[in-house]
Amino acid sequence: MQPIIHIENVSKSFGAIEALSRVSLDVQKGEVVLIIGPSGSGKSTLLRCINRLEEFDEGTIIVDGIPLNSSANINAVRTEVGMVFQQFNLFPHLTVLQNITLAQLVVRKRNKDEAEKVALQLLDKVGIPEKAQAFPNQLSGGQQQRVAIARALAMNPKIMLFDEPTSALDPEMIQEVLDVMVTLAKEGMTMVVVSHEMGFARAAAHRVIFMDGGQIIEEGAPEVIFSSPTQERTKLFLSKVL
Amino acid sequence: MDAKRNINSETDTPFQKIPGAEPSARIDPWWWLVLAVIALIVFLVLVRPDPFRRIIIFVSDGLWVSISITLISFVLILVTGLLGGLGRLSKNRVIHGLSTLYIEVVRGIPLLVQLLFWYFAFPSIIQGIGEALNIEPLKNYLANAVGMAILGLTFCYAAYMSEIYRAGIQSIPKGQMEAARSLGMSYFQAMRYIIIPQAVRVILPPVGNEFISLLKDSSLVSVVAVADLTRRGREFMSANFIPVETWSMVALLYLVLTLFSARVVSWIEHKTRMEK
């Protein structure tokens, strides 16, 4: 089967620092991939290359059969790929409902009634239907992140990318966000998640990838990677975070 | 310490949540200053109709010219400045270079000199081109004083406005643009729906200041044949030779306009403050 995300020999440097060094990775449809690794290992950069928020210097990325090489293609890919950020990045001047409907209206060209119907269904799904008229800064971090997930889902993406979705949250709010993510994974969404949440890894991930120094060091099923990693660097890293 | 905490929690939390109950929702006390200046003008007109009433009647057409030139220029400045600001942020080197050059050159030349250039030098250049190419309408080109004044003010102020827009747009966190683009919005959609609405709130105070400066600098157009408030004041002066009364009244009229504008700006700022 053709992978839904195909990454081949992708390299990327920030000045003299090599963030990604000939990284290759295939993700199958419906697969949940967790990327772990120390800070500066290139994991967020790799994720951001998938929807071309970060330009890469060399290599190819093909998402759902569309190569990321022209601006028309990049926009086409972005409508198929949802992204959730560490800092939520909700639009502070819009209500929760408007946050979720805006892109549906201007990108998907849905009418207002339909967009609002979708938005309310998704708010129900992430468990905060009563916050539709609130502004983002009236919500807790966990609620904001759930709105951000709903906003991305409203575009009916085929793939969801999560860039450290729980790193900016207070500990008691992490679970509510992870619950939504696990539900999504169980429904068969293709997900690439940069996170160190081992609970999520055990509950939903099909594959764990360990990155360091801009390269994929080791990959495998979560129980294998966490219990018996083969590489020294993986062992060292896991001993610090587990 | 504890007592202080209690007071804070009582005053801060319950009342600030109720819309309209914030202390800042009261009428801005500085409106009284506007009223006081208006009252002073009315008082002078009533107590000494000659010369104050005569002055006001004489300069009133100039007052409208000043107000209209300021308003028209300001609308043009807002539009041109936005283009300049986006140009400064452009990744395209040519666009970036041209807008930077424009801003640097314009900011380096006094406004009065620019106005003189547009009114006296620019038409000569057009006529010269007309002569050289033998194009009849260009040969007989005559500058419209008000048009050239608006052009000059816009050309100069738009450069400053570009920098205000640029700073405002840059003050919006990068994640906002990324979130918008990741939802499939184009650059211009993201600007229109996400970045500019937020930037507008940031740049309102400096834009308001620009408006007030423009109102005052509009008096410079009096030297390029525009019958604005200042020029009408000078005309009254040369006919009546009462400098103290004339220039006091002109100054008071400008003062009413600027103080009033300052209040309107602060009212708009209050209205558009982001939901807390």
What features would you describe in this structure?
The complex is a heterodimer of chains A (242) and B (276). Chain A is α/β, with parallel strands linked by helices. In chain A, 39% of the residues lie in helices and 25% in strands. Chain A contains nine helices and ten strands. The mean pLDDT of chain A is 93. Chain B is mainly α and 276 residues long. In chain B, 80% of the residues lie in helices and 0% in strands. Chain B contains eleven helices and no strands. In chain B, α2 packs antiparallel against α11. The chains are: A alpha/beta (242), B mainly alpha (276). Chains A and B meet through α2, β6, α3 and α5 of A and α8 and α9 of B.
Contiguous uncertain segments of 5+ residues of chain B: 1-16
Percentage of residues in helical conformation of chain B: over 70%
Q: Averaging pLDDT over every residue of chain A, what do you get?
A: 93
Q: How many DSSP helices of chain A?
A: 9
Report the sheet-strand fraction of chain B: under 5%
Mean pLDDT across all residues of chain B, rounded? 88
Strand order of the largest sheet of chain A: 6-7-8-3-9-10
Number of helices of chain B: 11
Question: Could you write a compact summary of the structure shown?
Answer:
The complex is a heterodimer of chains A (242) and B (276). With 242 residues, chain A is α/β, with parallel strands linked by helices. Chain A has helices spanning 43-50, 71-80, 96-106, 112-125, 141-153, 171-186, 198-204, 222-227, 232-241; strands at 5-14, 17-27, 32-36, 58-63, 66-67, 81-84, 159-163, 190-194, 207-212, 215-220.
